[in-house]
């Protein structure tokens, strides 16, 4: 067994960007712009919600937590991707690979729980409006957000421990754009059926249960909205949920196909495409979805910008 000890395998090599060739520069610029947009967009939403007292409501509290989470979620993978695009030596240490997997899955699980909490918030607001202010207090919001983070960071521990104990042979090329369980398990020198089964059980529980809860919440929300007699009332009620539902469909649609399966991989192209969707595109479009479809948030952004502009003008006088 010593000949397969993972300690002899000091690092892994990423092959996800190995064949980009002459488009390397363009790919780097596009990914960098996407990352900067993600950071600026989510930072703007987080800051505006925290600074504007009119947005200190449960719904916007969860939106600000989601924006804050997306900043860390993208930081676990995209900076390393940018480095790998430019570098000839696209490597990562064994410990670094496991850490990247742990934080990526922890933050991903936290997002699943957070999106579920946001669905519950919308369910209470629309289906039980009279009880909503009593139930969804500031204290409960804080406790729910803390629970989402705590549960998320506990979920992948067993998977990472099992992966850390696998023996790896001389082949160390990861066929992916960042470290993840499926490509890592494919490099092991022993049967990984137990690891795959554990991964499937944990991922299925986290992803499918939270997604099912969200869908049940929206089924009840739609039922309540359809009972509203006026078209304007129905539109106003559902407009508060449209942004969240769009984020849910994009995020869960990609991770279900990626992680709720008993196979290591369907195809390299599919895996990389899905990885781009849930690790890059979803965090990038979240600020767009929440700002473009939310007049109240747009007004708050304008108020914040103009107030800062007025303060700056007064400071020069």
Number of helices: 12
Strand order of the largest sheet: 2-1-3
Order of helices and strands: EHHHEHHHHEHHHHH
CATH topology-level name: Rhopdopsin 7-helix transmembrane proteins
Coarse structural class: mainly alpha
The number of strands is 3
> How big is the Rg?
22 Å
Shape: globular
Unreliable parts = 1-7
- Under the CATH scheme, the architecture is Up-down Bundle
- Largest pleated sheet: 3 strands, mixed
| Mean pLDDT over the residues | 86
How far apart the termini lie comes to 75 Å
The domain tally reads: 1
Strand content: under 5%
Give the helix level as a range of percent.
over 70%
Name of the CATH homologous superfamily = Rhodopsin 7-helix transmembrane proteins
Please report the first level of CATH classification, the CATH class.
Answer: Mainly Alpha
Main location: membrane
Transmembrane segments: 12-39, 59-79, 200-226, 238-260, 272-292
Protein name: Olfactory receptor
Pfam families: 7tm_4 (PF13853)
If you had to describe this structure to a student in words, what would you say it looks like?
It is a single chain. The chain contains twelve helices and three strands, in the order E-H-H-H-E-H-H-H-H-E-H-H-H-H-H. Helix 1 packs across helix 12, helix 2 packs antiparallel against helix 11 and helix 9 packs antiparallel against helix 10 (231-259). It is globular. The longest helix is centred in the middle third of the chain and has 34 residues, at 94-127. It has one domain: Rhodopsin 7-helix transmembrane proteins (Rhopdopsin 7-helix transmembrane proteins), CATH 1.20.1070.10. Helix content is 74%, strand content 3%. The chain has 317 residues and is mainly alpha-helical.
């Amino acid at each position: 067994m010593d000949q397969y000890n993972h300690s002899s395998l000091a690092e892994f090599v990423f092959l996800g960007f190995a064949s980009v060739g002459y488009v390397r520069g363009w790919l780097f610029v596009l990914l960098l712009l996407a990352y900067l947009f993600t950071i600026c967009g989510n930072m703007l939403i987080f800051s505006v919600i925290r600074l504007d007292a009119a947005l200190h409501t449960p719904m916007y509290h969860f939106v600000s937590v989601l924006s804050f989470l997306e900043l860390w979620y993208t930081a676990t993978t995209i900076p390393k991707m940018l480095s790998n695009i430019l570098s000839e030596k696209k490597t990562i240490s064994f410990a670094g690979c496991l850490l990247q997997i742990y934080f990526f899955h922890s933050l991903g699980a936290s997002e699943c729980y957070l999106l579920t909490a946001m669905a519950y918030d919308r369910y209470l607001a629309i289906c039980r409006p009279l009880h909503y202010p009593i139930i969804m207090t500031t204290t409960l919001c804080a406790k729910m957000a803390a629970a989402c983070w705590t549960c998320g960071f506990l979920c992948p521990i067993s998977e990472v421990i099992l992966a850390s104990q696998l023996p790896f042979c001389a082949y160390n090329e990861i066929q992916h754009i960042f470290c993840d369980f499926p490509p890592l398990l494919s490099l092991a020198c022993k049967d990984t059926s137990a690891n795959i089964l554990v991964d499937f059980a944990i991922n299925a529980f986290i992803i499918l249960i939270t997604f099912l809860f969200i869908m049940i919440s929206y089924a009840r929300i739609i039922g309540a909205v359809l009972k509203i007699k006026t078209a304007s009332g129905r539109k106003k009620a559902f407009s508060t949920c449209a942004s969240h539902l769009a984020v849910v469909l994009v995020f869960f649609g990609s991770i279900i196909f990626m992680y709720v399966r008993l196979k290591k991989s369907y195809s390299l192209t599919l895996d990389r495409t899905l990885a781009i969707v849930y690790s890059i595109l979803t965090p990038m479009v979240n600020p767009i979805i929440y700002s473009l479809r939310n007049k109240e948030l747009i007004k708050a952004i304008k108020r914040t910008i103009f107030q800062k502009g007025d303060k700056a003008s007064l400071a020069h006088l």
